[in-house]
Amino acid sequence: MRNLHGRLDLCAINTATLGHREPLDRTIDRIARAGFGGIAPWRREVEEGDVSQFARQIRALDLTVSGYCRSTCLPAATRAEFNANVEANRAAIRDAAVLGARCFVMVVGGIVPGSRDLDGARAQVTDGISMLMDTAREYGVPLALEPLHPMYAANRAVINTIAQAMTICETVDPDRSGLVGIAVDVYHCWWDPSLRASIAAAGKAGRITAYHVCDWLHDTHDMLLDRGMMGDGVIDLPAVRSCVEQAGYDGLVETEIFSAQNLWRRDPDEILAVCADRLQTVC
Question: Which residues does the UniProt record annotate as the domain Xylose isomerase-like TIM barrel (predicted)?
Answer without folding.
Answer: 28-267
